[in-house]
């Protein structure tokens, strides 16, 4: 007997029709059975045991609960990243709906992509910036899991968020149609061009760049170097022994460093808030804080000594000159004058011992910094107080924390809750400094750039205010810091650059900042508001 | 039509539902056939044989019930056959029943199960089921004998003991033990219902110890066989029956306590219980090893989505041993979330009919037995479905009617047959089996 050839293309359509008929008939017959059951009179009377209806309710309730739980796998399984990874990695089906899952894109503040899903069939995740944004953007990999923004925003990226009307519609489509599941896009506050330029400017040295908008707390760039390429992950990427200089570590958030001289503007603002603006004698051979301790000296002492000369000292200087000349001897005396209670209280207000949470996550771990370290100071611990006062000793901070501190100065004493996503509303925090003190200190930092240790940062047409830092590092060469803001009158950008073991702040960190300030200027960050 | 309406016209509701059930299975059967045809375009008249056999079974069963003047429930038989038919479709789909090499052995199990169901229904109808009460102690000893025999002669396969020929008669112990329980609880209902202050049950020590001692016999043998699923199922049924019959919610508290203590004890004795628990907590810890089966099961569900791929169009072979415990995952892939919902509705219908039968029984023993049967079937379904969807740890309990397994299928048929028999309580003043009389009669 000859049977007709079926066109293979018709098979799915016929199957769909048959499937529909099958399910329809099944529903119909169950409905009929229920009707017949209700209408037929059973022999015997109801014995009136409510227990039986109650039992039925319990059984049906439990069945319904299992069924609802089943839906979290069968219908909304795309919201479970581990599950999706499993289906993508260990698939045994010719038809694999996990392959149709397109994570949403991560965009920068101008809509440039930081991460997107390749339209090709393999659904590979592409990171256009590669290593430049690897630590903050993170990765979404079927084998290695998720990190960074890819992890914190996974609900939106997976298409399981229900926060907006559009997201809810997409969620509904995702539940109904297995053939194309689309996640939502995430728009970050990062600027891809600044991010890339900052990474390039570090030239592979160990270090970090943080760039904030002090008027909103928005993060413009968050760079850590060296880095890894999220486009090319392999087990070796995660093998500590095969990697030099911890490329996975986000130094901006997780690196703890002595701040050195960049803490001096904060100390100056604190002193002004305390109505203190003393004049101290700063002799060349330094001062001794508490008997029996090493004398505290200015850095020039050592520079002169290397040349076989004797450093005469700054002499009697006031607060402004101390900031501009970055005198350790002055700030050690200032710290001892302010006393341990004022310093302890300031450390508390400046949140040194707290984590900064850049982004909470509904699903996984938040994107956050480590907490800094501030030693609890007691009266009489003169050496400790003096060390902390010029940013050494047991004082340790993250580059991100210094960026927040600088934006507090730039914001007339108020810094704003850090944010990584454009749709987050700006939230001010409690003021760290009085507005007058903050303004006065910015003036001093402007002088640092005009005539002090950071004259190379005086970009024409941009009134940059800044401070260099050369932090003594017990385990090696000095760390090189540069913090700045521009324009000094109404800062649009706060910038913190750290180069590990880079030597003088003006040598390693400052040129990085200058190149970024110039780029930001070209990108229009310093145009007057409303002017484009 | 004067006087009593004939059984034939009384059971017209059942007849229509049977025809409907057949249509469902017909549409379902066409799908794997189509998929096969698209691969190899040949059909033979033998392909229609299983379907014809199913139709003959449906109608012959109906005929036998009519001929036996059976006046019991009209929905139970069609729903049971619908569920059995869906299970049969799933097994065809999974290849445990091979359409290309149909043999009598493939038909042997469902046909004998069906025959036992009809036979039991007729045998126990007219209130004869109540006489089982006298056999309740005998049932206990029978179950002990069966379990003992398995322990002596059984061979291990996939962690369970089987008699030669792949028979696992431990399944039948479910029926025997609930007959015993129903009888025992009728006798000692009042004592067991006693409480001290509040809701703490305080039956006389003699009664409690008696029940405990008798119950310990089969449970001990099951522990020796390491049949954890069965122990869990039977004890859940015991607990639910105690609450249902005595009306003392306090037994739930006692049960909870016993579950925790026994659960800890059992877990420390049986390593595979621990392993199952660990896999349930985090299947992703060992995705290619211990977590593989459950994760493939969940992947199958995700692949099925809302509508399903269509019977025959999925890839159930990706789930290891899909045909037995994980058959629901295969069903979820091919029939979709909607198909799953409909399957659950079919079970819900079966349970609600069963409890309605229990509610109308006058004889306390029959009432207990009907409720116990529903409890066994529903707990089995819940434990299986919960395990397959990862709502609870896997217990290795088959899904009634759907999972592959001869002894399980036959026991399920027997349980439903007993329920059917119980629904014909016998000696009604007037055989009022149903209102689905011919329209003529009603209009008159």
3D architecture notes:
Chain A is an alpha+beta fold and 532 residues long. Chain A has helices spanning 11-39, 50-74, 81-89, 134-137, 148-152, 154-158, 165-176, 192-202, 251-254, 264-273, 299-306, 319-325, 328-338, 340-349, 382-389, 399-410, 435-451, 509-522, and strands spanning 101-102, 106-107, 113-117, 125-126, 139-141, 145-147, 181-182, 186-187, 207-213, 218-225, 280-283, 313-317, 357-359, 367-368, 465-473, 476-486, 493-499. Chain A folds into 2 domains: 79-187, Penicillin-binding protein 2a (Domain 2) (Alpha-Beta Complex), CATH 3.90.1310.10; 192-522, Beta-lactamase. Chain A has a 5-stranded antiparallel beta sheet with strand order 10-9-17-16-15, with helices on both faces. In chain A, α10 packs parallel to α13 (328-338), α10 (264-273) runs antiparallel to α17 and α12 (319-325) packs across α17. The mean pLDDT of chain A is 89. Chain B has helices spanning 7-10, 12-39, 49-67, 76-94, 104-124, 136-153, 172-187, 189-192, 205-225, 228-246, 250-269, 271-281, 292-304, 327-360, 364-388, 406-423, 439-443, and strands spanning 155-157, 160-162. With 444 residues, chain B is an all-alpha fold. In chain B, strands 1-2 form a two-stranded antiparallel sheet. In chain B, α6 (136-153) runs antiparallel to α7 (172-187) and α10 (228-246) runs antiparallel to α11 (250-269).
